[in-house]
Amino acid sequence: MKGLFFLGLTASSLGFAQTQNPDSLKIKEIEAVNFTKRLPVAKEIINVQKDLDSRNLGQDLPILLKNQTSVISTSDAGNGVGYTGFRIRGVAGRGINVMMNGVPFNDSESQGTFFVNVPDLTSSASQIVIQRGVGTSNNGVSAFGASINVISKDPEDKFYVKTDDSYGSFSTYKYSAEVGSGKFWNNRLSLMGRYTHISSDGYIDRAFSKLDSYNFTALFEEGKTRIRLMAFGGKEKTYQAWNGIDRKTWETDPKFNYSGAIYGSDGNISSFYNNETDNYRQNHYQLLWEQGFNDHWNLETTLHYTKGKGYYENYKQGDPFSRYNLPDILDGGQLIKDSDFIRKKWLNNDFYGIVSTLYGKYENLDLNFGAVANQYYGRHYGNVTGVFYPIDEHEYYRGRSVKNEVAGFAKALYRVNDFEFFGDLQLRNIDYDTKIILAGDDEGANIKKNWLFFNPKAGVNYRIGNGKIFLSYAHAQREPNRDDLIANNDVKAEKLHDFEAGFEKQIGMVSLTANLYYMYYVNQLVLNGELNNVGAFIRTNSGESYRRGIEIGAVAKVSKQWEISGNVSLSQNRNQDFKIENSTFIKELGNTQISFSPDVVANLGLKFNPNKNFQFSLMNQYVGKQYLDNTEDQNLQLKDYLLTDFNAQYQFKIANNDIALKLLVNNIFNKKYVNNGAVYGSDPYYFSQAGTNFMFGISWKIQ
């Protein structure tokens, strides 16, 4: 392995006390986080300002988390700006339950997590809690790989103005301004607002991103009452880069992008449509009320509403008029049956509900009761206009979907001497109804489904000095998403039995964690390697399958200046008696490796603080080989890769100004690699990632 490595993993992310805790890094103790710290589950708790701030220069949250345990991050544009995603333990974003302050963030229909809709989310976060595996009961869909809760930061006590600006490769830049009022009205009220603009040309041809985001928070505190009003969201315009390229093109022209290609009469590309874009706006509104009743009981209730609306646009060449419910055209006595069109496919949705959690705390007993009621209402519709023939904007399909969810859970943590016993019961009911209003272009289906899931969990901690060992079992069930149901109305819900055994210990200056897991699935929805028309992976039930492995993480504070840290995940991810079925044949493949699930993911590194102002670090990730589908076809295998990034930060003061200079150099050895791909027919397609690239930034805070 070349170079030295540093993982963005700290004692705080392992759940141990930090080695440094200056006032600037203090964050409010949050009831949900305190409860999670003690649970018998594999977890990391990330202090955003301490662990991620030096690298937060414009790349999206999945990229900033890429060095956490068992995480692999992906980027359509190749440089971490625009559409990004991650997998944890080999499970893609649709199997990861993401929450914002306990409110579900996964799209209700697709179950996907689209961080491009909330750019620069990291700048408004204080903590990120990652529970790998099933974890404990949360709001939203069940976690089949991990659950992530992004917790927003509170306004500060004193007035300040802050700007974060950065510039780097591929004409990438970020402008961000934030202001906080400090406390006023007898120290009961404080306000905070942020606006960010991010722009990038992308590594891939034409894969530009133009992203805007905002965050506004008002906090009222008096006695045992805390009320937060939050409005945050963003607007994105990105050129499509979700098709990938074939292997030969990747070898000769890795930046090539087929999106928007217009072909001449000779069958070769003659030009590109310059508005082959994805356009979406998403606004989140949350009213969070925390009420302490006495020393034993505390209630947190959140009302939430998310509004999303947008479309993606394509140039469609040589399509028949009938596809769009249009009549053929008579031109000079000749009947014209097909032509070129500009197509826009729209999504207009509303998601709203209430989330409430009651915390009870007694001498040896902690209780946690939660309830949630949400409704999603979505409209799908498409419009076309003519290129060569004048056709006014014409709506050719429309559908609507309603998804209702009511759920509740109860958790208990009971201490007996050095033991802590944990129990968790969740009941979840989902109704999903989608209807075609105007048929066309094979969009949508008439579907009416109901699922009722009971998900029990149990575990035990045994305290050993300043550490613990734990055992736990969790059962989870998860409904298919909209695309699964449209492709196959008989698709089955997934079931998972998750067994975990872990160890956490502070040994001198070394913080150590180790975790064994066995995840047994029934009807797991695995990626089959193929993409649908919006670049999302198509899934299929795999019968019985399992993921099992060991995860080890460590941080060693060698001296005041040097810190060595790292983690490694060794796993086996297998389908059992896997079959490929269609209308004409059934092919038995036996036991095969689950797609996009490498057996090895490792991070190792070094951080050096020559003094309190300077910080240098080398970050590295090794990812083993992985397959693009579930057949173990060697032609459809992604090679292993090793990446090294460099990060530096210099902090200083001028009068009342806090200034930080930051530098991030990604892939410093210019490794040519692929971390994501797809299958077209029997051929592999790759999503190219950038070679050596950099971001330089300056943070300036006046208070």
From TrEMBL:
Topology versus the membrane: Multi-pass membrane protein
Keyword Signal belongs to the record: yes
Protein location: Cell outer membrane
SUPFAM superfamilies: Porins
Residues of the TonB-dependent receptor-like beta-barrel domain: 248-668
TonB-dependent receptor plug domain location: 49-146
Protein name: TonB-dependent receptor
Organism: Chryseobacterium paridis
Phylogenetic placement of the source organism: Bacteria, Pseudomonadati, Bacteroidota, Flavobacteriia, Flavobacteriales
